[in-house]
Write a structure and sequence with these properties.
- Helix content is about 30%, strand content about 25%.
- It is of the alpha/beta class and about 200 residues long.
- The chain has one domain: Maf protein (Alpha-Beta Complex), CATH 3.90.950.
- It has a seven-stranded mixed sheet with strand order 2-1-3-4-5-6-7.
- Helix 4 packs across helix 5.
- Bound molecules: inosinic acid.
- The site of inosinic acid has 19 residues, from strand 3.
- Inosinic acid (IMP) binds next to strand 3.
């Protein structure tokens, strides 16, 4: 089965393909099926935005579409950047600029506890909608560490492992990450759906 990913983020796609590949599911980008739509994330929750993206891409392609809406929620910042993680600090910033801004906003703040959240939604042309949520607890590091991953990975510290997400191999990250957990749950729901249809 082919699922069209409602994102242009290659690294997200790689993470999702690695996990869902075991099920014989192929995740492809919109561009691979000749579609290029930018869905406006007007929702205020991960669930709403995830559904908006998956539904729009399913309607545009006529194929099952999967979306991940994710972000980093920091307790001392009342849950920010949260659903606005990709847009934190405005359009002029890249990943490095955004995590630097986060470190700046965390100066002198406590606690430094935070969690990554991922909500996966898959919309099928027959009207079926599958949703799964995963979370991963950690803290905001005092300085960036590691070269792997993307986004806020260099500043998301896992106290038990004494490493940031960016210091883990892709397999290590997938095993504990918010997206890994959401995808595992989704995988079970997808298996159930495929058995029913
Ligand atoms: P989305 O594409 O609207 O879901 O935006 C998610 C944003 O949250 C990304 O642009 C990243 O900044 C951040 N994010 C989500 N998941 C991760 C992750 O696994 N590592 C680092 N940053 C992430």
């Amino acid at each position: 089965m082919k699922l069209v990913l409602a994102s242009k983020n290659q690294k997200k796609m790689k993470e999702m393909s690695q996990i869902l590949g075991h099920l014989g599911v192929e995740v492809c980008l919109q561009a691979d099926v000749g579609v290029d739509i930018e869905v406006e994330e007007t929702g205020t929750t991960f669930e709403e935005n995830s559904l908006l993206k998956a539904r729009a891409v399913m309607e545009a392609t006529g194929l099952p579409a999967i979306a991940d809406d994710s972000g980093l929620c920091v307790d001392a910042l009342n849950g920010a950047p949260g659903v606005y993680s990709a847009r934190y600090g405005g359009p002029g910033l890249d990943d490095t600029g955004r995590y630097r801004l986060l470190l700046e906003n965390m100066r002198g703040q406590s606690p430094r506890t935070a969690r990554f959240v991922s909500v996966i939604t898959c919309c099928f042309p027959d009207g079926e909608v599958l949703t799964a949520r995963g979370e991963c607890e950690g803290t905001v590091a005092f300085a960036p560490m590691g070269e792997g991953g993307f986004g806020y990975d260099p500043v998301f510290f896992l106290p038990k492992l004494k490493k940031t997400f960016a210091q883990l191999t892709p397999e290590e990250k997938n095993a504990i990450s918010h997206r890994g957990k959401a995808l595992e749950l989704f995988r079970a729901k997808l298996e159930d759906y495929l058995n029913r249809t």
